[in-house]
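I'd like us to work through together how a protein chain folds, taking it slowly. To get us started, please write out a protein record for me. Label the sequence line and the structure token line clearly, so we can match residues to local backbone shapes. Once you have written the record down, we can walk along the chain together.
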Amino acid sequence: MKKLLRLDKDGRWELGGIEFAIRERVGKPHNLIGRVSELEYLYTWADNIRQEISRSVAFLGRRKIGKSLILERLYNIIYSEHKGLIPFYYEFTEGTRSGREFYHDFVTRFYMQVVGYYTRDISWIRSAADFNTDADAETFMKDIGMHAVNHVNMRRITYFLCRHEGEWYYPRDLKRTMNLDIGDEALRGELALLHKYDLIEFSGGRYGGVFDRTLKKVLMKHYGDILGLPAEEFNAYFRTDNLLDYLQERIRQLELDLAEAEELRNTMSVLRGEHNDLKGHYYEREVLLRLIKAVIDGEGGVTDGIGVTEFDYTLNYHLSDGQEIDIVLEGKHTVVMAECKNYAPEYLHRITEKMVKKFADKARRLKEKHFPEKALRLIFFSRNGVEEKLKPVLRQHGIFLH
């Protein structure tokens, strides 16, 4: 994860990549300006905690000058970078209370934020940071328990239905057969959620499983979690995939009138474009995983000299002129930049000399501007290779082909 505390060219704080786990009292996040030295100091101090070299600090100042706001932004940045440092925010409110009351409040809000950090569910954190309401330990433990029970139930249900593919169950039959300790309404809600994400099937009020497709989705969901890919994009991928298969089958098997056939062809053309974009999107992540694996395994080659504890990466690195580099992998002394093409064999002619030159030019501009002291390595990844006539062009520009 790259550093999220950074200024744009106009000297305002960039907000890309920050998830606002705590609501900041400034209102809209872009309203926070300045405070550069304070935030830089505290960010470095927080980062050094992971190295076990930071000491406690007192952040002092008059009332209403923005101390709490700075800490809220620091909290949101640390939460979003997700490097293993768990932020904790606590306010001492006015009034009196017993030591026992303080202990329960403090500990409950602490564990709510820990749970929120690990589950990536900011509702826990926002509840913990709402000091206008009480933090009830009993309610918190009950919610945690129900969350864990429901998670186990959903996994059991998915596994059971997939193991019994071809059999269909009404919710009440499923509850009785599996001896589930769950209320009827909660069970219907979980089944609806599993069906919404297309992990199980629904027909005529009954539920069933399809093992092969479920396994495929579970594996791809795990693959996405490695890089924090949004779940919506997986939904879009499978939805597009299924529609393409459906339309291709219809056009191949049915006798359609010309108007309907033309409408379907147009729809399929749009879907094919979206599908190809998504395939390219996933191919970039596949390539990045291969590069990271090469660093971890010490394979050398294009990642030679990049240490496992000293690298950072960026997908779709945006340049100031609107262009982008697919992958930037930065080591201590070396920066690797990669272009990724997922063209089918029949479309390899679309990878042109002009495309290669454009990649080399923008990569070297980025290197000179942001990585002037580091050695540059250029890589061109193409799932199905390139035409023979293009290989001398790649060598001419000092680009490795993978």
